[in-house]
Specification:
27% helix; 7-stranded mixed sheet; globular; 11 helices; 383 residues; GMP Synthetase, Chain A, domain 3; alpha/beta; Rossmann fold; 22 strands
Length: 383
């Protein structure tokens, strides 16, 4: 058994590939845990992350990986994942999608994110062939004879736009960010077997596939807030017992996500607890507003957020990417479009037009950047 002082946290700032795997194996053989870091992150960012994770401090005996999960709020947190939890997640994934002797995984997501590194770990656990791309490239992806892969919605859009044959994949796990229903319909019409997943670093990645929990995973709703229980859970946040006390409740991990069950019994994520904008005394789920606006034919992409407002408390702002720069919907257009599905309070009071929504490497919206863009909307007047 490794000596107590050898159980340390090893930061790996390496791109996906053989060198990363060799360093991971060496660290685990010494009894250490690994902290994957974006190899292209600026030095100042790396310094801030290391200061928060403090590699000089010991790690718990069962910790194998520490995955950074700041979401889009900016505060770095380290989800401590054990080998048992990682293995439980990998085995449950293969049990759900099935396993064939000719299966081959294709990894094209960054390994500092749980969705990326889990592709590699799943393949190694069951000794499946693995092809690794250190970055996503449509042409390279199209040329690979793989049967299983994991993508974020942005990558899927690019593959569909390039008319890549996705029908050869037995399963394309889609996670990292909410997948618009129109994107899923488009992918399936193109012959792609897309499996939308829900999960996070704290659950070793996706733990709900196509609305149904993986084997061994329990999901519950408490006043609409999603709770998760099962062998895939992290042991806690590194050096943050204060946060552990907030998110663990009698064996349940209390997420910041809101959900509901559809008529078919499947879980649907409807927003986040911190996605609720209180405007004019009414609670509005910003992501629901974005879903409605996304159906506007002139909008290619949209995010909705709230910004401080002297009159309304918070002002609802739509940040949009138009399909055509010569046909940009006005604020009045957007409010009228949403009138059938949204209450007056849930209709945007300002609009910001940009070329592309800012996103994190995981494909999730960068809510901090979107908030800064929305703050530029100024005072739209008394609508």
């Amino acid at each position: 058994m490794p000596a107590a002082d050898s159980r340390r946290l090893v930061a790996l700032a390496l791109p996906p590939g053989d060198e990363f795997i060799a360093a991971l194996d060496a660290a685990w053989q010494r009894g250490s845990a690994v902290l994957p870091i974006d190899p292209f992150a600026p030095p100042a960012v790396v310094d801030r992350l290391l200061a928060a994770m403090r590699p000089d401090e010991p790690v718990s005996d069962d910790t194998a990986l520490v995955i950074l999960t700041s979401g889009s709020t900016g505060e770095p947190k380290g989800a401590q994942l054990s080998r048992d939890a990682l293995a439980a997640s990998a085995l449950a994934t293969h049990a759900r999608i099935g396993l064939r002797t000719d299966d081959r995984w294709l990894s094209c997501l960054p390994w500092q994110h749980i969705g990326g590194i889990q592709v590699m770990l799943r393949a190694r656990l069951l000794d499946l062939p693995l092809t690794v791309h250190d970055r996503f490239d449509v042409d390279r992806f199209a040329a690979e004879p793989a049967t299983l892969t994991s993508l974020v919605p942005t990558q899927l859009v690019r593959l569909l736009d390039a008319k890549v044959d996705l029908g050869r994949f037995r399963a394309i796990l889609l996670g990292g960010a909410a997948a618009p229903p129109a994107l899923l319909a488009r992918a399936r019409a193109a012959g792609a077997n897309v499996v939308p997943t829900y999960g996070m670093s704290e659950t070793c990645g996706g733990c709900v596939y196509d609305g149904s929990p993986l084997d061994g995973v329990d999901v519950a709703l408490d006043a609409g807030r999603v709770r998760v229980r099962g062998p895939v859970l992290m042991s806690g946040y590194r050096l943050r017992p204060d946060l552990d006390a907030e998110v663990f409740d009698d064996g349940w991990f209390v997420t910041s996500d809101l959900g509901e069950y559809g008529g078919d019994g499947r879980l649907r994520i409807t927003g986040r607890v911190d996605d609720v904008v209180i405007t004019g005394g009414e609670n509005v789920v910003a992501s629901r507003v974005a879903e409605v606006l996304a159906t506007h034919p002139a909008i290619a992409d949209v995010a909705v957020t709230g910004v401080p407002d002297a009159e309304w408390g918070q002002r609802l702002v739509a940040v949009i990417v138009p399909r055509d720069a010569t046909d940009v919907p006005s604020l009045t257009d957007l409010r009228e479009w949403g009138s059938a599905a949204l209450s007056p309070a849930a209709r945007p009071r300002a609009v910001v037009v940009i070329d592309e929504l800012p996103r994190l490497a995981t494909g999730k919206l960068d809510r901090l950047a979107i908030g800064r863009l929305a703050a530029r909307s100024g005072d739209p007047g008394n609508l």
